[in-house]
Specification:
The chain has about 550 residues and is mainly alpha-helical. Helix content is about 60%, strand content about 0%. It has 17 helices and three strands. It has a three-stranded antiparallel sheet with strand order 2-1-3, with no helix packed on it.
Length: about 550
């Protein structure tokens, strides 16, 4: 560049700074560097202009509307959620099947008190009176079952005459004069008291039966039959009064003008959901709660029958008044069913229990019925139902007889003929119900593959070796386990000592579908010395309503 006549030279950047050094060999010249820098600056500007539409609101909304996802990437999770929905949909059907079967079991045990028990008492008394004519062929004057029947009959008669001293009308007006809130508290207290006294009552009756039939060869460590008998009479009488107060409170709720008390009592059922749904339940706990719900529903049906009888008597048996009571009765029954369905549906959902567990419960109840029909049964069927469900028919039967005899007046020959025909009808209903239940129970036992526990051959004890030391583990006809150490459940009535016979039922593989929870199965393979100091694992056949209180199981 020539400097002449142009003043001071300028650099490529338009400044008066000294020019940059000349480019070496293989390096770009200053002009080329300037052009490259200008190209990058212009390209960065174009990128900034191009990224502005990408961050616009329309582009964000478009991405939200068009973005997608694939559920099959988490197939197991969604399949499990769908199965939970199907389980909740199956719960009402399976639960009502169990409830239907259990209610008819309670009905069979309840009808037994009115129909077959008086006949059995008559036969036992006839045997006792005519015993000198036949001679003493056996050391026992009466068989153990006959002794228990006579005790039940005497308790019923004594408690029935004691109930005549309780004035139902005075109790009704006394309860009706209380405030609504006070009656609500009383009703809740009565429900709690009913559960507590039932849990202790069956133990009192079992203690009486065993004390009266215990073999004389054994050392007796008890207070005697007479004290146990008075304790049983006192229990049945007090329990009958408690159920009468419950029925009277329900009757007051039905006859109240604004139905506020009835609404509050029904809302109490929904409070039960809060106390049960959010607790941890296993299969054994759920089985116990299901039995309690069956007993509670059947007891409510009997209480509603008592309320209808008392109201119809007050209105001179006018059929029109029955239709006045019908909506309230349906409302109480519907609320009970709805609460049970919701409660069981959420319990099974929160604890990952399938709906098939109710068929197992039904098979366990059916096993009790079938095993009680065997010749070497350990207990009567009505007592088995009492232990399993907590339903004791004696107090409820005493109350119903008291209400019916006070509500219906029998006068004239025709009235007595009608009573005899009604009694024959009850016997026919009892026999028909027993036949149908026995057939259904055999079907359920076969479906559960439990029939081998009933039809195994009798195992005889080895001479010189006690039956409790036989090889293997045995189970009684009521599903009560007897291990090698000779420990038995509290519901097992020991056999006569001279028979020296082990239990008939050998433990089979079918027990595995009833054992819960699964985590306890890991403990089976422990050392035998450790098993001696640990209680045997419970299955559904060993769940006894009265060995525990509440919904807890060891």
């Amino acid at each position: 560049r020539q400097d002449s006549g142009r003043g001071e030279p300028k650099t490529l950047w338009g400044s008066s700074e000294p020019r940059p050094p000349a480019a070496g060999p293989g390096q770009p010249s200053p002009q080329q560097r300037t052009e490259t820098l200008g190209f990058y600056e212009s390209d960065r500007g174009r990128k900034k202009k191009r990224s502005l539409p990408d961050l616009s609101l329309l582009r964000f909304i478009s991405a939200e509307l068009t973005r997608g996802y694939f559920l099959e990437h988490n197939e197991a999770k969604y399949t499990e959620r769908r199965e939970r929905v199907y389980t909740c949909m199956r719960i009402p059907k399976e639960l009502e099947k169990l409830m239907f079967f259990g209610i008819f079991l309670c009905l069979d045990a309840f009808l037994y008190v009115f129909t077959l028990l008086p006949l059995r008492v008559f036969l036992a008394m006839f045997r006792f009176i005519t015993l000198p004519c036949y001679g003493l062929r056996d050391r026992r004057l009466l068989q153990p079952a006959q002794v228990c029947d006579i005790l039940k009959g005497v308790i019923l008669v004594i408690c029935y005459f004691m109930m005549h001293y309780v004035d139902y009308s005075m109790m009704y007006h006394l309860i009706r004069g209380q405030s609504v809130i006070k009656l609500y508290i009383i009703y809740n207290m009565l429900e709690v008291a009913d559960r507590l006294i039932s849990s202790f009552g069956q133990d009192i009756l079992d203690a009486l039966y065993w004390t009266a039939t215990e073999p004389k060869e054994r050392k007796r460590a008890h207070i005697g039959v007479i004290p146990h008998f008075f304790m049983a009479v006192l229990y049945v009488f007090l329990h009958a009064i408690l159920i009468m107060v419950q029925a009277t409170t329900l009757n007051v709720a039905f006859n109240s003008h604004n139905k506020s008390l009835l609404t509050i009592m029904m809302s109490n059922n929904f409070v039960e959901i809060k106390g049960s749904v959010f607790k941890k339940f296993e299969k054994n706990n759920l089985f116990q709660m299901s039995n309690s719900d069956i007993k509670e529903r059947f007891t409510n049906y009997v209480l509603l029958l008592i309320v209808c009888l008392r109201n119809m008597e007050q209105f001179s048996w006018n059929p029109d008044h029955l239709w006045v009571l019908f909506p309230d009765v349906c409302m109480v029954v519907a609320s009970e069913i709805a609460v049970d369905i919701v409660k069981h549906a959420f319990i099974t959902k929160f604890n990952d229990i399938t709906a098939d567990v109710y068929s197992e419960y039904r098979a366990s109840l059916a096993f009790d019925l079938v095993s009680s029909r065997q010749k070497n049964a350990y207990t009567d069927y009505s007592d088995s139902v009492s232990r399993r469900m907590g339903f004791i028919p004696l107090p409820l039967a005493v109350l119903l007889i008291r209400v019916v005899t006070s509500s219906i007046k029998v006068q004239g020959v025709l009235a007595y003929v009608c009573v005899v025909l009604f009694y024959c009808g009850l016997i026919s209903l009892k026999v028909l119900n027993s036949i149908v239940l026995l057939g259904k129970s055999c079907q359920y036992v076969k479906e559960a593959k439990m029939e081998e526990k009933l039809f195994n051959p009798v195992l005889t004890a080895t001479p010189g070796k006690p039956a409790g030391k036989q090889q293997g583990t045995f189970k009684s006809t009521q599903g009560i386990s007897t291990d090698e150490n000779g420990s038995t459940s509290v519901t097992n009535q020991p056999m006569h000592q001279k028979e020296n016979m082990p239990s008939l039922l050998v433990t089979s593989n079918s027990d595995q579908f009833l054992t819960t929870p699964d985590g306890e199965e890991k403990d089976i393979s422990q050392d035998s010395s450790e098993l001696k100091h640990r209680s045997a694992k419970k299955d559904l056949l060993e769940i006894d309503r009265f060995t525990i209180c509440g919904n807890r199981i060891d």
